[in-house]
Amino acid sequence: MKITEMRELSAEALAQIISEKQNELKNLRLKHKSTDGGIESPGRLAAMRRDIARMLTVQNEKKAVKQ
Fold it and tell me: Each residue's pLDDT tens digit in the chain (67 positions)?
């Protein structure tokens, strides 16, 4: 998801997506640590962390604008 798309979302929708992504990241980390070979693409973990960080940044921008 691009940052312009994130900025168009409502605060509630963005919070829901962040929560879903954080749960997905947690599950990937558990899967990565529990299996011998790891997950198919470990780079996906880093990409997901960056996506979550972008979403949190947009969420904080929205909060700052409200105040």
Answer: 889 999 999 999 999 999 999 999 999 998 888 877 777 788 999 999 999 999 999 999 999 987 7
Helices (H) and strands (E) in the chain, counts: 3, 0
Residue 42 near residue 32, CB atoms below 8 Å: yes
pTM value surpassing 0.70: yes
How far CA 52 is from CA of 13, 21, 22, in Å, comes to 14, 7, 7
* DSSP3 helix / strand / coil % (the chain, rounded to 5): 80, 0, 20
* CA 58 to each of CA 14, 44, 50, 54: distance values in angstroms, whole numbers, following the listed order: 9, 21, 12, 6
Question: Quick one: tokens of 33?
Answer: 């640590």
